[in-house]
Amino acid sequence: MRLTGKRVIALVDEEFEDLELWYPIYRVREEGAEVHLVGPEKGKKYIGKYGVPAEAEYSFEEIDAKDYDGILVPGGWAPDKLRRYGKVLEMVKELHAAKKPIGQICHAGWVLISAKILQGVTVTSTPGIRDDMENAGAIWKDEAVVVDGHIISARRPPDLPPYGKAFVDALAKA
């Protein structure tokens, strides 16, 4: 239980990619971390692209990033919504400044782009947002998982096993 005592934010909004939300959550919980689902509205049930629900335990406004050891940003269409919330961008910037693990997969890179934390960072994502990542100053690689310091990125669901391991490893070291 390498992550006992660690706390992680898992962001959620409508049309998250079901596996990209739940797989990392379960992986982190398997190692003993506490994970909180955080969305725009506490108690609201958000539905993934394939119909899997996720109920927000906290609203963005209730969370103080300094109380957490890392954050997971799922893919799907949710990142296009998540990046529009100032509080989400604040959380990501605060965790980035503290060099705490930030996990992002698929389209989740949009949130990091909007937080303006990718300049000079080596990442991956779904190839569909490669141009967005590069235009934000990132160095993009077509690899299953890329770890650049505290930023852990992955392309898509088939990359979840190495992504989960890389995020857990980063959290254990933090």
TrEMBL record:
Residues 6-169 form the DJ-1/PfpI domain. GO terms for molecular function: peptidase activity. Pfam families: DJ-1_PfpI. Coiled coil: none annotated. Keywords: Hydrolase, Protease. GO terms for biological process: proteolysis. PANTHER family: DJ-1 PROTEIN, DJ-1_PFPI DOMAIN-CONTAINING PROTEIN. Belongs to the peptidase C56 family. This is Protease. It comes from Paenibacillus woosongensis. The lineage of its organism: Bacteria, Bacillati, Bacillota, Bacilli, Bacillales.
